[in-house]
């Protein structure tokens, strides 16, 4: 995948790309990132101006954005283009799944009071991280970059872990590592048992329990009989250790 970011702060993207899963995706050849500095396409480096109508704040000018975008399309063709906006559709996991299938993505990052409205003719869709306002689109671009990078082929060393991600079906289950006990807090015995079938049931139970607690709106419609049994037991306040005895 080719990932383009149009921004007045290119170093924010360059630095982030040197770490973690994004660096790994680049190293494995699954991802290339090109950061376009809008100042290089602006007259005398001036990327913003006062808003018409006497409105407050500064607005990103259209010229540098259109010129920078044209430099991409002339070299690579038109990428699927996203404009971060607080009123845009909220980004969810299904969007990351969908966007990870694109050959190329571009994010146009606004700043200050926003970006000239005419730039929107370049965008395929407007997306948001949530119902709050940031000073620019770079944080969104980084979130999208990481969310997509981990889904690309050959990036994760254990790709099967994607199947148990939160929002695939239920929310994620609790995880633990060494030591088995720390300051009186113990890892659940079932995880130390070596009984893989029992561990799978434990994982499912706690995924359902976490979903019921934090995001009951995400309960799937096509639940299995096992999932329904667990869900009803959890609602009754039954613990996993009690429930599993009824399955033997």
* Content of β-strand: 15-25%
Uncertain runs are none
How far apart lie the N and C ends? 49 Å
Total beta strand runs: 9
CATH arch. level architecture of the largest domain = 3-Layer(aba) Sandwich
Descriptive overview:
The chain has 248 residues and is an alpha/beta fold. It folds into 2 domains: 2-159, Alpha/beta knot (3-Layer(aba) Sandwich), CATH 3.40.1280.10; 166-245, tRNA(m1g37)methyltransferase, domain 2 (Trp Operon Repressor, Chain A, Orthogonal Bundle), CATH 1.10.1270.20. The protein has helices at residues 10-16, 20-27, 62-76, 93-99, 138-149, 196-214, 225-235, 240-245, and strands at residues 2-7, 32-37, 48-50, 58-60, 80-90, 104-108, 125-128, 181-182, 185-186. The strands form 3 sheets. Strands 2-1-6-5-7 form a 5-stranded parallel β-sheet, with helices on both faces. 24% of the residues are buried. The model has no long low-confidence stretch (mean pLDDT 95).
